[in-house]
Amino acid sequence: MNDIYDKYYDKLFNWSKAKTNxxxxxxxxxxxxxxxxxxxxxxxxxxxKLDNLIWKIAYNLWxxxxxxxxxxxxxxxxxxxxxxxxxDEMIDKIIYKEIVDNISNVGLTEKEETSFRLYYIDDLSIxxxxxxxxxxxxxxxxxxxxxxxxxxxxxYE
Length: 157
Known about the structure:
Helices cover 73% and strands 0% of the residues.
């Protein structure tokens, strides 16, 4: 187990830091990956490629963390005692919160906005959304693609 930790810690930490833009969050994410990995390995399940397993766990944990951040609209953004953000991090967080709070001002169609909210805020899967909206999964993917594209055009030009 120590060999795995020594071999992958720096790679995972650097990846986590790039994803979170925050050293504290990167440490938490990296440690969560190792915890999940060790729990998985203790189940005595055969693993063909350890490298693939580690990165899959890391990606899934990152997605869960990102979705929970979106869900948490009351995130403390301006409390300097909570975190010390760099200017770029603070700007990104403010923009992100503005996007979520003002999603109706982006110019999305009703189906795009509903799909976006259900996927990113309510944490539903594409399959669950398609069932809820009585449409195909490919339509939901299309709505989400268009929503992301319009949001990028609106906020990142």
